[in-house]
Write a structure and sequence with these properties.
Blueprint lengths: L5 E6 L2 E7 L2 E3 L7 E6 L3 E7 L2 E5 L1 H6 L7 H31 L4 H8 L19 E5 L2 E7 L3 E6 L7 E3 L2 E8 L2 E6 L19
Antiparallel strand pairs: 1-12, 2-11, 3-10, 4-9, 5-8, 6-7
């Protein structure tokens, strides 16, 4: 037999593979929740102003008031005022008595102006020294407190879980086979039955 008259076709097998992964299930388990609580933070600022210290003791000492405080100074000045008032009153009485004795106003004026007297003047800076001034620096304190954050997880207790194992599925879509097809002319038995032999040309 001539093999060229045969057509041989090989059909390979066709397999479909489906892989299902395993998993843990618990459909009745509550969903986890998170609670976040924040505490109050903030910033605290404390400031102390700068200071100027003025010591006038030396300046007051140069004017004769170094040993006096404020109350003493006021009292001394008040006493000086009272003394001047007494002196003015005595002068008025004295001038009144002089006028009563026949002294003229012109003569009184000459006496009061110190006619014939020599006056010596001395110029001097008062106070002789200045006040002692010192400075104290200011202070600034800044305290920053970070806000507290508390995180609380709920529903994270141990719960039973159902394990579903994985699997591999094989499906044969096409079985392997060999298809043989005869491509020649039909063979007649007996050969005389072949209609091609009885054809008249």
């Amino acid at each position: 037999m001539n093999h060229n008259l045969l057509s041989i076709t090989t059909v390979p097998i066709s397999v479909e593979i489906n892989i299902v992964k395993g998993e843990l299930r618990n459909p009745n388990a509550p969903k986890p929740q998170i609670k976040v609580k924040t505490g109050a933070g903030g910033i605290k600022i404390e400031a102390e102003n700068a200071k100027i210290n003025i010591d006038t003791y030396a300046a007051r000492s140069s004017t004769g008031y170094g040993k006096y405080n404020s109350a003493d100074f006021y009292k001394k000045e008040a006493d000086k005022g009272i003394k001047l008032a007494y002196q003015g009153t005595a002068r008025i009485v004295r001038e009144g008595n002089a006028l009563a004795r026949g002294t003229t106003p012109g003569e009184l004026a000459i006496q009061n102006n110190g006619a014939g007297k020599s006056i010596q003047t001395v110029m001097e800076h008062i106070p002789k020294v200045g006040a002692d001034v010192t400075f104290e620096k200011g202070k600034l304190s800044i305290n920053y407190e970070i806000r507290d954050v508390n995180i609380d997880w709920d529903n994270l207790k141990t719960v039973p879980l159902e394990f579903i194992p994985g699997r591999v599925e094989f499906k044969v879509r096409q079985m392997p086979q060999v298809v043989i097809e005869y491509t020649g002319r039909p063979i007649y038995v007996p050969p005389s039955a072949d209609p091609m032999l009885n054809t008249v040309v």
